[in-house]
Design a protein that fits this description.
The complex is a heterodimer. Chain A is mostly helical. Chain A is built from 8 helices and no strands. Chain A has 2 domains: 92 residues, Rna Polymerase Sigma Factor, Chain: A (Orthogonal Bundle); 92 residues, Orthogonal Bundle (Arc Repressor Mutant, subunit A), CATH 1.10.10.10. Chain A is globular. By secondary structure, chain B is an alpha+beta fold. Chain B has 2 domains: 68 residues; 142 residues, Immunoglobulin-like. Chain B contains 6 helices and 8 strands; from the N terminus they run ααααααββββββββ. In chain B, strand 1 and strand 2 form a beta hairpin. In chain B, helix 2 packs across helix 3. Chain B is elongated. The complex binds zinc ion. The site of zinc ion has 7 residues of chain B, from helix 3.
Chain lengths: 188, 257
């Protein structure tokens, strides 16, 4: 349901419908910003990455169609890539004069929270099924945006090993999620 | 993982494939359920994030920038009247001109000046064009410098190619102004800005900010209201956006005072 309405919005955006872009923005602003903040640990970088995402969408870069999976996955992947680009380009300060404490604004929007919470519990439960090492792999690979080369360097593991462990971790995550969604077990 | 192409999954998710490889992998996704499902499962990971309240005004900034792509370039350098604090709407110019940001207090107050206004401001502030030249190290100091400390050159951090000079000018009425001029600056992206800090111990205060013009030059002007502090360092950081109350970006230039 939501998926199809996303796709519908996206179709309208491709026709240069500004209202549709704004609707899409409203729908995903908070999750995208939160995700980008988690990745960058920097509110300004997160905003910049978010802007990149919407500029790309508006320009039709990396056109979406449902052969690319769920719309939200595609959108998040684009956001993740934007953040990675910025992180790699900019790096975090190595010479900080002092840690800055960003003040989050006091009131939090309740809108969308329940759904988010539900998704969160879901994915948390799935992640908790992974070994500590697999969780670490996902943390480094997905949220820190490290390449598998970088992870190999950090962990001292061979490249090929890192790559297959990432894949295994993601594969297990997928199976667990599917199992929880009652879509049946997957044999592999 | 039964296909050679499945190997591309990790790189695909990590965004390290070329455009051509990405296209190739997306073709593969159409026929490989396993990879597609992993892509979708990965797409649920962002929900692990803690809810973070978006910055005020972000939506209007982003949408304006997105839609601006389409339209004729709007003149982006706007001179807001000093004293008016229109913080949220202020943006670094997309095509940075020489801008000077006088900071009269420690609150966020940003004013973007056109080069002309900036030049006029400097001239009137410094009293004469001669002193301005001196700031740019093009002339030796006049016989009776009004500087509280001589122009000092800031040292670039490793990997930074630019240079800057700072001077404190004492006005006839005793007011102190810090003027920083910089050159050979790297071009900025997005809302990035060069931010000047005066530091006492480990307590930095923002002391003006500037962007780089097409020639890689920038200048900042700061009215030092309260000179009781004993500054020991001046530093310039590359901030991701203007208005930070404490440094967030990397130090690119600095000098002891
Ligand atoms: Zn595959």
């Amino acid at each position: 349901m939501e998926k199809s309405s996303d796709t519908l919005l996206y179709t309208r955006i491709r026709e240069k419908d500004k209202d549709a872009l704004e609707d899409l923005y409203d729908r995903y602003e908070k999750i995208l910003f939160s995700f980008l903040y988690k990745m960058t640990q920097d509110r300004e970088l997160a905003e910049e990455a978010l802007q990149e995402v919407f500029i790309k969408i508006w320009r039709g870069v990396g056109d979406y169609d449902d052969s690319k999976g769920k719309f939200s996955s595609w959108l998040f992947r684009m956001a993740q890539n934007s953040a990675i680009d910025l992180i790699r380009k900019r790096k975090k300060p190595t010479v900080g004069l002092e840690e800055i404490a960003e003040m989050p604004s006091a009131e939090r929007s309740v809108e969308g929270t329940a759904e988010w919470q539900e998704e969160k519990e879901h994915i948390q439960a799935a992640v908790s099924q992974l070994s500590a090492e697999q969780q670490e792999m996902i943390q480094l690979f997905y949220f820190k945006g490290h390449t598998h080369e970088k992870i190999a360097e950090l962990s001292g593991l061979p490249l090929g090993t890192v790559k297959s462990r990432i894949r295994l971790a993601l594969g297990k995550l997928k199976k667990t999620l599917h199992g929880m969604q009652g879509k049946g077990a997957y044999d592999e | 993982m039964n296909n050679e192409l499945c190997d591309g999954l990790v790189d695909y998710l990590n965004g390290t494939l070329s455009i051509e490889e990405t296209r190739e992998f997306e073709e593969h996704l159409k026929t490989c359920e396993d990879c597609r499902e992993i892509v979708d499962a990965t797409g649920q990971l962002p929900y692990l994030s803690d809810q973070e309240e978006p910055p005020a005004g972000m939506k209007s900034r982003i949408l304006a920038n997105v839609f601006e792509e389409e339209e004729e370039p709007v003149p982006v350098v706007s001179a807001v009247e000093p004293g008016k604090t229109d913080i949220e709407m202020g943006r670094a110019p997309a095509n940075p001109e020489l801008t000077v940001t006088p900071v009269t207090d420690r609150k966020r107050k940003r004013v973007w000046w056109t080069p002309l206004i900036a030049a006029a401001l400097l001239v009137s502030l410094l009293g004469n064009a001669y002193t301005f030249m001196q700031l740019q190290n093009e002339q030796p100091a006049p016989a009776e410098p009004q500087t509280a400390f001589q122009s000092i050159d800031l040292q670039p951090s490793e990997g930074f190619g630019g240079g800057a000079t700072a001077a404190v000018i004492e006005q006839a009425d005793g007011a102190l102004n810090l003027v920083v001029t910089a050159e050979q600056l790297a071009a900025l992206e997005g809302e990035q800005i060069y931010q000047v800090w005066l530091i006492e111990g480990d307590n930095p205060i923002p002391a003006g900010a500037f962007t780089a013009n097409a020639n890689g030059e920038g200048a900042a002007l700061f009215n030092i209201e309260n000179n009781t502090e004993e500054w020991d360092t001046i530093a310039i950081t590359l901030e991701p956006q203007p208005g930070n109350e404490s440094p967030q970006g990397q130090v690119v230039l600095s000098a002891g005072l």
